[in-house]
Write a structure and sequence with these properties.
Elements: H1 36-61, H2 75-82, E1 90-92, H3 98-103, H4 108-116, H5 125-128, H6 139-153, E2 172-177, H7 184-195, E3 200-206, E4 209-210, E5 213-214, H8 226-230, E6 234-238, H9 242-257, E7 263-268, H10 287-294, H11 298-308, H12 313-336, H13 355-369
Helix pairs in contact: 1-2, 1-11, 1-12, 2-9, 4-12, 6-7
């Protein structure tokens, strides 16, 4: 079967060779106006997010993490969309949005605590505008629509400059993969968002595989095209082009904030590594496919552009030093993380502890009191 995605236009502003254009000849509102300093800042994000990923992968292999979900190859999709968010916006992630977490100011060491199994997510969603990771495939899209409806009811959607409140409106972005589009929750979220003009940007990272199931086994049309059936726009973007991703996400968020309803973005990218560290991608895809996508590396194309405009070597040298410092930070914090106090779980089940929970907690405390302090937990 031929790949239908080949015939669908993909917005691109930076080629794999590092050549930049102002627009992709589509909607003139979708454009990246940042200067070279802005591009350098994005490259810094990309490189440091990749270091987070490779460092966490190594920690897992050394037994310091129970699991890790790599985002190798998907950095541009995450950084581009993450940098498009305004402080008042809210992001609902899956379990792979490490780059978005970085853009929302979350210490990446907090992500390691989750995969180490010592906490459920050490950041405050209300403070960061970034929800806790979701392992239930697609469930977060329904949460995003509900949050978006709340924004509408709170009156923070659809203002304009004439009202003197421009820049205060909020929107929601929901992240998911191509495999999640086959889930009922995602399609139900599309229905609700369209019906109520919810200010939600559905951001699909199409990394070509739902664990081991290739895209052509899931759909006969480009994923972005599905949005038309629900009554809202869909756009495909080169998910390895950080400039194009930021441009199209800014456009979609602005549209949502102004009260024009949802948008589906399909960021066409590739998971260069495993689905998780318990996965072996060589069992379901050929190395030649991975090699083909490596030529489209999201970091390499930005580096090529920056070097073409005369960026000094010192910039890259200093950035390598920043990456080394970040790696050391992650290693030291990860290994120093204390195990959780199991008794504390009784304190966070209900707002007020019930007699049954109080009895169970007392039983646990009495049981572990009979052990030496160093093994009490």
């Amino acid at each position: 079967m031929s790949d239908p995605a080949v015939h669908a236009p993909v917005l691109q502003l930076l080629t794999p060779e590092g050549e930049r254009s102002a627009s992709a000849g589509q909607d003139p509102a979708i454009r990246f106006d940042g200067d070279d300093d802005t591009v350098r800042a994005l490259y810094r994000d990309l490189l440091l997010v990749r270091r987070i990923d490779t460092e966490a992968h190594a920690l897992q292999r050394h037994g310091e993490l129970g699991l890790w979900a790599p985002c190798l190859g998907q950095e541009a999709a995450q950084v581009g969309s993450g940098r498009a968010l305004s402080p008042q916006d809210f992001a609902f992630p899956t379990y792979r949005e490490h780059g978005v977490a970085w853009c929302r100011g979350i210490d990446p060491a907090r992500l390691l605590g989750l995969f180490r199994g010592v906490e459920l997510g050490g950041w405050d969603p209300a403070e960061t505008g970034f929800g806790l990771y979701s392992i239930v495939i697609g469930a977060q899209t329904l949460h995003a629509v509900g949050y978006g409806l709340g924004l509408t009811m709170d009156g923070v959607v659809g203002h304009d400059a004439a009202a003197g409140t421009e820049g205060t409106d909020a929107a929601v972005i929901a992240y998911f993969g191509d495999g999640a589009t086959s889930q009922g929750d995602v399609n139900e979220a599309f229905v609700w968002a369209a019906s109520f003009q919810a200010p939600v940007v559905f951001f699909c990272q199409n990394n070509q595989y739902a664990i081991s199931v290739p895209l052509e086994r899931q759909t006969r049309v480009p994923l972005a095209q599905r949005a038309q059936g629900f009554g809202f726009p869909g756009v495909r973007v080169d998910g390895n082009d950080v400039l194009a991703v930021q441009a199209v996400t800014e456009w979609a968020l602005d549209r949502a904030r102004s009260g024009q309803g949802p948008v589906l973005i399909e960021a066409v990218t590739f998971r260069m590594g495993a689905h998780t560290t318990s996965d072996d991608p060589s069992r379901y895809r050929e190395q030649a496919e991975t090699d083909e996508w490596k030529a489209k590396d999201p970091l390499l194309r930005v580096e090529r552009y920056l070097r073409s405009v005369g960026t000094d070597d010192a910039f890259f040298t200093d950035l390598d030093a920043d990456a080394e410092a970040l790696g050391e930070h992650l290693r030291s914090v990860c290994r120093a993380m204390p195990d959780p106090d199991l008794a504390a779980m009784f304190d966070v089940v209900h707002a007020e502890i019930t007699p049954e929970l109080a009895a169970q907690k007392a039983e646990l405390l009495a049981y572990r009191a009979g052990f030496e302090p160093e093994v009490a937990r």
